[in-house]
Write a structure and sequence with these properties.
This protein has 14 helices and 15 strands. A seven-stranded mixed β-sheet has the order 4-10-9-8-7-5-6, sandwiched between helices. Strands 1-2-3-13 form a four-stranded mixed β-sheet. Strand 7, helix 8 and strand 8 form a beta-alpha-beta unit.
């Protein structure tokens, strides 16, 4: 039986009623990718308040790699609920915090002693990574990248690239942040082509140290191994090794922001493994908690110990229920080989999407690592002008036909996939059939509009 079951027009009457209540009670700054209000979930399926069922390719923006309400995660949560909900680890600590830190220290890239700090969110993790890097080096500067997204708190916003809607109107931001182009080969900032470019964008870091900010004034370079909100841009596999080598040559730390790329999304537990690098500090969140708020900063032990006692923390940071959920998430990866599943899903998507690319010039590039896949939509494949409005039409077509997708990219012209890795083959194919129908419908509509006489 088909997974998608639509009983009403989308949005249904109950969702519409909730939207009206929301407009009166919630500020407009909190926007929604769909007008659908959820009633319950399971695995890769959402059901809304009107009884409509959808296949979820958004995964809570990458928080549900192990699926909605994963049985092992629920069991771990229930077990902890019978003990205690909160004590504050800074007052009366608990064993699961220590046990989770030990496991992250063991499984993150790098054969050196590590320590881990837990917080509530990815933005908090980024903020603390910057604090730790500055304390460890005694330097103020942080280098980030164009098209990066690191969160919505003030330091994280300073590191984030996209102006609207994230940054505009919230100035001023913390200083000593410098930005350089990312390895976005489809839109190379230097109009070069890989591999003949000899990784010019990575080597440009040396020029930055000469012309923009002195290396001895830079604490760290922070980068997402695969851009998240920036459009699921996956650099060439030798890019980060070059970048990290330059950092270490100058005593600059490298921070890998794996908030969205971590926990199996790219076919390895961490995307840094795919690039063969060992970050000095690795930041995680989203899928670490299996649906509960949790973030982590894992780094070289001597770096993590730089702040003094009391310099790090937070009232709810490392909540015991979230820690137990995260331990269950790690168990699932060990027991179910979800990394291999991510690679299989990505390969299957790539095969179908490249056929779409041949059929519809609307699709400019198909890209990604593992199950972290995306298509970039353009007005024409030769000039590559962003097709932002068409991207909105694709996402709308999808949710109106029972599939939840979300967009990304600095121009809002990228469709990204963040489906739970537990999605079945049948569900994945059904969802891709809808996505294919969306591309076909939007492209044909565009052709009809172009053919209309002026």
């Amino acid at each position: 039986m088909a997974t998608i079951q639509l009983k009403t027009s989308i949005p249904g009457p109950k969702s519409k009623a909730l939207s009206e209540r929301r407009s009166k009670a919630v500020p407009r700054g909190l926007s929604h990718a769909t007008p659908i209000y959820v009633a319950k979930t399971e695995g890769a399926i959402l059901e809304d308040v009107d009884g409509n069922r959808y296949i979820d390719l958004a995964g809570g923006i990458g928080c549900l790699n192990t699926g909605h309400r994963a049985p092992g995660v629920l069991t771990a949560i229930e077990r902890q609920l019978d003990k205690f909900l909160h004590t504050c680890v800074q007052v009366t600590p608990y064993e699961c915090y220590v046990r989770l830190a030990e496991r992250l220290n063991e499984i993150t890239p790098g054969k050196f002693p590590k320590k881990t700090l837990f917080v509530n969110t990815g933005a908090e993790a980024v903020e603390n990574a910057v604090k730790i890097a500055r304390a460890a080096t005694g330097r103020p500067g942080i280098i980030a990248f164009e098209d990066a997204f690191h969160g919505r708190t003030m330091m994280a916003l300073s590191l984030t690239s996209k102006t609207h809607p994230y940054k505009a109107g919230f100035q001023p931001f913390p200083g000593e942040v410098y930005r350089i182009p990312f390895a976005y080969c489809y839109r190379c900032s230097y109009s070069l082509t890989y591999p003949s470019c000899d990784l010019y964008c990575a080597r440009h870091l040396e020029d930055t140290f000469k012309r923009v900010v002195a290396a001895e004034g830079v604490a760290a370079v922070i980068a997402e191994p695969v851009l998240g909100e920036g459009g699921f841009v996956a650099p060439p596999l030798d890019y980060f090794r070059t970048l990290v080598d330059i950092c270490h040559k100058h005593g600059v730390l490298f921070i890998a922001d794996e908030v969205q790329s971590g926990f199996g999304r790219t076919g390895a537990l961490f995307a840094s493994e795919r690039y063969g690098i060992e970050p000095d500090i690795l930041v995680t969140a989203k899928s670490i908690g299996g649906g509960l708020p949790l973030g982590a900063i894992t780094g070289r032990a001597e770096i993590m110990d730089a702040p003094g006692p009391g310099g790090l923390g937070g009232t709810f940071a490392g909540n015991p229920v979230a820690c137990e959920a995260a331990l269950a998430v790690l168990d699932m990866f060990e027991q179910q080989d979800l990394n291999a599943r991510a690679q299989s899903l990505g390969d299957h998507f790539q095969k179908r999407a490249r056929e779409w690319q041949k059929r519809w010039p609307l699709i400019g590039e198909v890209r990604g690592l593992g199950a972290m896949q995306a298509v970039e939509l353009v007005q024409s494949q030769d000039k590559r002008e962003p097709a932002s409005e068409e991207t909105k039409q694709v996402t709308q077509y999808c949710y109106e036909h029972g599939v939840i997708t979300i967009s990304a990219g600095s121009y809002g012209n990228v469709i990204r996939l963040l489906m739970p890795l537990v999605i079945t083959d049948a569900q994945m194919d059904e969802a891709l059939d809808v996505l294919e129908g969306a591309f076909k419908a939007v492209y044909e509509r565009k052709q009809e509009a172009t053919a209309q006489p002026v």
